[in-house]
């Protein structure tokens, strides 16, 4: 059962990280229904929901063309940088951008900022969050670095195994990333561990209809 002090953090559910995107992750889009379900369950409990996005400049050392590892992806204000069209966010969700500087990789959500240039850690402190539930794209980069940073900051962390997929530049990168996160102190969970909140309060006066 979720109580206060908990928050959801979803990394980079963006078009460029889904199949057909500039840096498409195999089955990256398949996590969206689970992400939506987590978002709904946290929002129903009035728990904060944080979503990060890669928000790169056109020229950055992050890209292969300028000395980095990656093809050009998630250039700010382009179609590929938009959230997946099936992602459903409540208006209270807090969007944080990262990788805006031309020298930054910024894999970790702890290098992401909201519109007022407030960083994730600062915002979590304001909300009094002590436990983070982290999923998104990709397991072996932004999720891993966010989880490891969260643990360093002293948060209790759960990796949402059914709401994350890896890039897997090497085939076992995601498996290895999960191993590293667990070794550093993270726990894991899936949607089955969080009960959905019923839409309407159950009416006690309504008795079951007899079966015919
Ligand atoms: Zn990036």
UniProtKB/TrEMBL annotation:
Pathway it works in: Cofactor biosynthesis; nicotinate biosynthesis; nicotinate from nicotinamide: step 1/1
Metal-binding recorded as keyword: yes
GO MF annotation, one: nicotinamidase activity
Record-linked Gene3D superfamilies: Isochorismatase-like (3.40.50.850)
UniProt-listed InterPro entries: Isochorismatase-like_dom, Isochorismatase-like_sf, Isochorismatase_Nicotinamidase
Keywords, in A-Z order: Hydrolase, Metal-binding, Pyridine nucleotide biosynthesis
One Pfam entry name: Isochorismatase
Leading EC class: hydrolase
GO biological process, one term: pyridine nucleotide biosynthetic process
Domain Isochorismatase-like: 7-192
EC nos: 3.5.1.19
Similarity comment: family membership: Belongs to the isochorismatase family.
Protein's UniProt name: nicotinamidase
């Amino acid at each position: 059962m979720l109580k206060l002090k908990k928050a959801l953090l979803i990394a980079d559910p963006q078009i460029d990280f889904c199949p057909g995107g500039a840096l498409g992750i195999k089955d990256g889009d398949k996590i969206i229904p689970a992400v939506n379900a987590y978002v709904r369950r946290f929002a129903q409990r009035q728990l904060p929901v944080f979503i990060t996005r890669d928000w790169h400049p056109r020229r950055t050392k992050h890209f292969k063309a300028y000395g980095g590892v990656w093809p050009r992806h998630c250039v700010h204000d382009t179609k590929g940088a938009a959230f997946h069209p099936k992602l459903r966010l409540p208006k209270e969700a807090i969007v944080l951008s990262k990788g805006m500087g031309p020298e930054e990789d910024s894999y970790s959500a702890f290098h992401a900022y909201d519109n007022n240039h407030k960083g994730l850690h600062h915002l979590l402190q304001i909300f009094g969050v002590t436990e983070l539930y982290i999923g998104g794209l990709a397991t072996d980069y932004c999720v891993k670095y966010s989880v490891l940073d969260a643990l360093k900051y002293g948060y209790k962390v759960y990796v949402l195994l059914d709401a994350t997929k890896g890039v897997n530049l090497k085939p076992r990168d995601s498996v290895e990333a999960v191993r590293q996160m667990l070794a550093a102190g993270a726990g894991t969970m899936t949607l089955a561990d969080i009960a959905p909140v019923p839409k309407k309060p159950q009416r006690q006066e309504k008795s079951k209809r007899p079966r015919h």
